[in-house]
Amino acid sequence: MQTLNVDLGDRSYPIFIGANILSNQQLLAPYIKGKQVMIVTNETVAPLYLEALKSGLKGFKVDEVILPDGEQYKNADSIDMIYSALLSKRHNRTTTLIALGGGVVGDMCGFAAATYQRGVEFIQVPTTLLSQVDSSVGGKTGINHPLGKNMIGAFHQPNVVLADTETLTTLPERELSAGIAEVIKYGLIRDPEFLSWIEADMPKLLACDQAALSKAIYDSCRNKAEIVALDEKESGCRALLNLGHTFGHAIEAHQGYGNWLHGEAVGAGMMMATLMSEKLGWLSSEEVGRVSQLIESAKLPVAGPADMSKEDFIHFMSLDKKNLDHRIRLVLLKGIGNAVITSDYPMSAFEDTLVAG
Amino acid sequence: MQTLNVDLGDRSYPIFIGANILSNQQLLAPYIKGKQVMIVTNETVAPLYLEALKSGLKGFKVDEVILPDGEQYKNADSIDMIYSALLSKRHNRTTTLIALGGGVVGDMCGFAAATYQRGVEFIQVPTTLLSQVDSSVGGKTGINHPLGKNMIGAFHQPNVVLADTETLTTLPERELSAGIAEVIKYGLIRDPEFLSWIEADMPKLLACDQAALSKAIYDSCRNKAEIVALDEKESGCRALLNLGHTFGHAIEAHQGYGNWLHGEAVGAGMMMATLMSEKLGWLSSEEVGRVSQLIESAKLPVAGPADMSKEDFIHFMSLDKKNLDHRIRLVLLKGIGNAVITSDYPMSAFEDTLVAG
After folding, report:
1. What ipTM does this complex have?
2. Do the domains at A2-170 and A173-356 have one common CATH topology?
3. A343 three-state secondary structure
4. Average pLDDT in the B281-296 region?
C-alpha cells in the first residue's frame, strides 16, 4: 500500500492506495469522529462493494443511501435523497458521510456533506480510475444545474481517501480508458517523466495490473496535490488541470451528459488543445503525433463528435465557468509537459481548431 | 454612522450602521470586486428599496431576482430561482450577490453565494431589525428542508454589511418587536449594562428612534461578533446565542413556519429558559419578573402557544441540530447576563417547564 499526504494546512489528509484496502477498519476508523456513518453509493456499486465497506465499520451506526447510477442523476433531486436519508435517520452534526463510487457519487456525497447542517465530515472511497486520480484531490464537490454542468457546489475536503485498485477490475473497459485520460493529462501538463512511463506501461494499465494502477494513481494524485496546494480555491495555476476540459465540457454538453464519458471528452479535448498549440507554433508535428498515439493507445477518441459543428462548440463553451467576463481562456501546451493558461491567441487558430474538432 | 469591524482573520469585514446609508456608493463599491452584481430581494422589499440600492451601484452590471416573501419560501425552489437567474444572465465566478431584505432573503442569498460556482462574493443589506442584529454577524446561511428547519446550509461570510436604520420605519410593528427579542437576548446572555439600557429605552426602540436603533444594532452585533470570533464554526460557546431558540424552534415548527415570527418564538422561548433556570435555583423570582416585564414591554409573548402540549414540545425538539446524540442541550441563565450551556439538569425541571409553556 502507498500513502500520499495532501498538504492543506489544517485540512490535510492522507490518500491510501492499494489492492483490497476497502474493508480495512484500521485505515477507516481513525478518521470517523462520531458514531454515525452514512454511506452514499449507487445501484451499480452497492451490490459489488457495500458489504465489504461495511465490514470495516464495526461499532458504528451505519446507514446507507443508494442513488440511481449516472451523470444525469447528478442533480438536486439526488442531493435531496441524501438529505432526506440523513434527516429521517436523525443524523446529527457529528455524522460522517462516506462516498462509495465514482466521481458522480463523490461529488454529490461531498456536496451533501458540505451543506448538511452547514458541513459535516466526509470520506471518499472512489471505485473508478477517474475518481481515484481526479476527485481524490482538490475538494471540489457539486452537482449539475439544468442550465450548466457543475455550476452548483462547494469546496469540502475529505478526512481520508481510500483508493482500492482491486475495485478497478470490475470497471467497464470504456470507463478504465476514461480514467486513463486524466492520468495522461498529468503527464502532459507538468510531468514528462511520468508521461514516458505511461506510454511504456499502457498495456499494463489496460490489463488492470495492480502495481501499475497503483503507481498511476499515486503519481496523478501527487501532481494534482502539488498544484492544489499552491491554489486551493482555483484562482490561478489550478486551471492547468483543465487541459482538454473546456473543449471536453462543450462536447459533453452537446452530446447530453452521460453519452460521452467525461474522460472520453477530455481525451478528444486534449487532442484539440494539442492541435491548437501546434497552430500557434508551440508543438512540433512529431510531438502532436506522440500525443495522438498515446491517446489512441488508451482507446480514447482523438476528435470531437462528427455531428458537432464549430458553432456548437462556441455555443456550448460560452457558459463555461473558466470564462472571465465572457473571454475564453484555454489551457494549451508550450511543449510536452509544459501547459500554460492563456487567452492571448489569434481567434483564427481557435476557430480553425473547432472546425477540425 | 457607526462602524463595527467583525474580526475573522482574512474573512474580516465591516458593518456600517446608520440612517439613509443604503444608496451610498462609497460604502458599497469598494467591496464589489468584479463588474457583475445580482441583487436578491423579495416582492415586499423590492418596491421600497430596490431602486435606492441600485442608485448606489452605478457602473456595475446589475441584475435582480425578486423572490416571494415569507419563511415558507425559504426552500430549494427559491434557491433555484437565484441559480437560474445567475446562469441565464451569465454571471461568472467574479459576480457579487447582494441580499436586500430580512433574514430569509439573507440566508437564501448567502447560501446561493456559498454554492454558486463553488462560492462567490456576497454583501448583506438587511432591512429588518432581526436580520440587522442577527444575520449580520456569523456567516450562517441556508434553507429549510421539509424534514427540518435550517438543516441545509453553509458558513459564508459577507464582504460588508450595510444596516440602514431608516428601513426600519417601514417595518410592521410585529416584526420590530420580533427583532427586539434578539436584542434582549444579547443583554440576557452576557451584557447586563446593555440590558439596563434596553429596559430604559424600550419606548424609543418601539418608536423607531434612529439613534436608539443604531445603538441597539451596534451593541447587539458587537456582542455577537465577540462570541463568533471565539467560535466561528459553532463548536463551543457560540451555542450561547441559542438562548430561547431550542424552545422557540419547537414553537415555530409546531405552529407551521411563518405563523409565529421567529423573534416571537424566541421571546416565549427565552421566558421558558428563564422559568427553567428559576426551577434550578439559578434565578430569583425578582429576576424572573424583570425578564418577564422586559419581554412584555417589547410586545412579545411570554408563553408558548396555548394549543401546544408537553408532548408537542418534546416531539419538535428531538430533531434540533443542537442535540448531541439525541440529548437535549439547553442554554439557561445562571443570573441575568450570564448564560450557560448545559445538559446536566433533572428531567423534571425540563418537563415542568414544557407544561408551563
Report:
1. 0.87
2. no
3. coil
4. 97
Which residues of A lie inside 8 Å of B (Cβ-Cβ)?
A: 35, 76, 80, 83-84, 87-88, 90, 92-94, 111, 114-119, 140, 142, 145, 147-148, 151-155, 233-234, 318-319, 321, 323-326
DSSP conformation letters of B20-50:
T-TT-HHHHGGG--SSEEEEEEETTTIIIII
pLDDT for residue B171 is more than 70: yes
Q: Is the pLDDT of residue A324 over 80?
A: no
Which among A83, A93, A153 is the nearest to B115, CB-wise? A153
pLDDT at A235 exceeding the cut of 90: no
- Which chain B residues are closer than 8 Å to A87 by Cβ? 145, 147-148, 151, 319
Q: pLDDT band for position B326 (50/70/90)?
A: low
Half-sphere exposure (CA, 13 Å, Cβ side) for B104?
A: 25
Residue B219: CB atoms within 10 Å = 20
Query: Among this protein's residues, is B140 annotated catalytic?
Result: yes
Span A277-282, average pLDDT = 96
Contacts A83 to B, Cβ<8 Å: 145, 147, 151-152
* CATH homologous superfamily of A173-356: Dehydroquinate synthase-like - alpha domain (1.20.1090.10)
**Which residues have a Cβ under 8 Å from the Cβ of A214 and sit 6 or more positions away?**
A2, A17, A18, A19, A165
Query: What percentage of chain A carries pLDDT values higher than 90?
Result: 81
Distance from CA of A332 to the nearest CA of B (A): 22
Fold of A2-170: Rossmann fold (3.40.50)
Backbone conformation region of residue A324, classed left if phi is above 0, alpha if psi is from -120 to 50, else beta = beta
Q: Report domain extents, chain A.
A: 2-170, 173-356
pLDDT one-digit tens code per residue, A36-56: 999 999 999 999 999 999 999
Distances (CA, A) of B62 to A1, A250, B67: 54, 28, 16
Nearest residue to A219 (alpha-carbon basis) of A246, A192, A248: A192
Look-up of cell digits 445580482: B38
Rounded to whole angstroms, how far apart are CA atoms A83 and B56?
40
CB contact under 8 Å between A118 and B87, yes or no, is no
